[in-house]
Amino acid sequence: MKRRAFITLIGGAAATWPLAAWAQQAERARRIGVLNTLPAEDPHGQERIGAFLQGLQQAGWTIGGNIQIVQRWAPGDVDALRKYAAELVALAPDAILATGGVAVGPLQQATRTVPIVFVNAPDPVGAGFVDSQARPGGNVTGFTQFEYSMSVKWLDLLKQVAPGITRVAVLRDPNQPSGIGQFGAIRGAAASFGVEMTPLGVRDTAEIERGVTTFARSSNDGLIVTSGSLTAIHRQLIIALAARHKLPAVYPARFFDGGLISYGPDRIDPYRRAAGYVDRILKGEKPADLPVQAPTKYELVINLKTAKALGLDVPPMLLALADEVIE
Fold it and tell me: Residue 99: beta bridge partners?
């Protein structure tokens, strides 16, 4: 989209220019910052931002015209998140979109006045981002990803598809509250499912490969991949390791392509909904008055091709519950 041209009129021509046209031409372009937690080249990350931009367009905004988008990408790098958060705030945007819970903290440290709309952030109250979901207070609101108790569902699904599992590795980021919270919920339910839990870090590819390779040593092993920017960034490696070591695995979202089972909220729709919040903020509403919203839909995806490669028979009842079955 071409940026709207501003026309300078002089003399008598100015006197005859319609007032409405003056207002339209003089309209200030609004600026929206976006702090991303996936790599710029990640197709799923691009799909997320595409949904956000589409939502803005549907609300009547023209990308590159009366609204400008400034993006920063900081995949899995806490220092980069702090740096880019400060950069975006220094640009004096009208609002900032935080993609993921790890992006909210650095932004909130950089500003307590610029409106921040987060997407896919777990437990914003516990993390201190908002006062409550109904009345966020401050300059932050947005869309949650899930409650930590939902993590137990991953263990339940794993036991349904592979009942003989007695040892489960849980890939999580121990440096993030969401990683700790998800693992804690799974560990709390482990005894009732008759499994032993082993936490594995996801700091980098070497740690992931070393952890999974060391853990996988019997036919009774399984894997749960928790939600987080690092597991999303390294998802192809994790899926490949699960296949190599014949590990039945459950993943937190459908974009873990090739994984055995995924269960989690729709990760794209919140970006469209976030565009609606940004639109309302640009029109004068306050983040403090916009309630934090929870996911509206969870998706269960089962890959029968992967199940066959692992020698697993997926229960018909589980197949009947699936939103998508990949043959």
Answer: 119
